[in-house]
Design brief:
The protein is mainly alpha-helical. Helix content is 61%, strand content 10%. It starts with a helix and ends with a helix.
Length: 161
Amino acid sequence: MATAQQVKELRDRTGAGVMDCKEALAASKDDVQAAVEYLRKKGLAAAAKRAGRTAREGVVSAYIHPGSKLGVLVEVNCETDFVAKTDAFQALVKDLGMQVAASNPAYVGREDVPADVLEKEREIYRGQLADQKKPAQVIERSSRASLRSGSASSASSSSRS
C-alpha cells in the first residue's frame, strides 16, 4: 500500500492527480521511479486517444485596432462549446488577434508568399551564414529552416508595398 509521502512525492514530480498516483504506485509495487514511468506511458496513451478527436467548436473573433486602419479575423478551435464559452478562452482569442495585428504579417499563409520574395529571403540568410564559414549544404539547410520557422516574416513585411 502506497504511503501518503510516496503519493505526495509522485505528485510533486509528475503533477498527476492523487488517484492517478495511487494507481501508478499500486501498479509499480510502490516503486516511485517505476510509477513515474507508468504515468508517462499512461500519459502518452491518453494523448494518443485524444489525437483522433477533432476540434469542431471554437470562436471566430475580430480585432479592430484603434483608428480602424487595421483589422484581424482569428479562428481558434477547441473540442467543446463549453470551453469556447469560457472567459479564459475568449481572452486567449482576443490576445491572439492582438498578437497577429502587432506582428504585421505580410501574407496570410506560406502558400501566399511569392517565389521571388522567398528567394530574396534565402539570399539574405545565405549572406548572413556565409560569414560563419560553414559548408554550403549547412548554409542551404539553415536558410530553408529559417524560412520555415517564420523568421522571414519581419523582413518580408518590410518589402510589402
